[in-house]
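[#protein-structures] MJ: dropping Transposase here for a structure pass
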Amino acid sequence: MVGDRGYTSHRFREHIWGMGARPAIPPQRHEAPVACPEWIDTNRNRVERLWARLKQWRAVATRYEKTATSFAGVLCLAAALDWLKP
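AK: finished. C-alpha cells for Transposase:
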C-alpha cells in the first residue's frame, strides 16, 4: 500500500498490516523515519506528479461526470494526451 503523508496514522498502518499488505507511507516530519525501499518512494512520487498534471484538466479536477464510467473515460483521455505530449 503506497500513500502520502496524509495517511501516516498508526491506526491506518496497523489496518494495512492486518490486511496482509506492507505500508509504504513516509512519516510526518516530526515522526521517526520508517524503512521504505527507494524504488517505492520514487514510484509514489511519479504517481503524485501524474495526478497533479491530470488535475490541470478541469473535468478531472472538479469531476463533472456523474457516473464512474464516464469519469474513467475522461481520466483515460487525459492520461493518453499527457503521455502523447512532447
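MJ: nice. DSSP finds four helices and no strands in the chain.
AK: one more thing. The chain has a mean pLDDT of 81.
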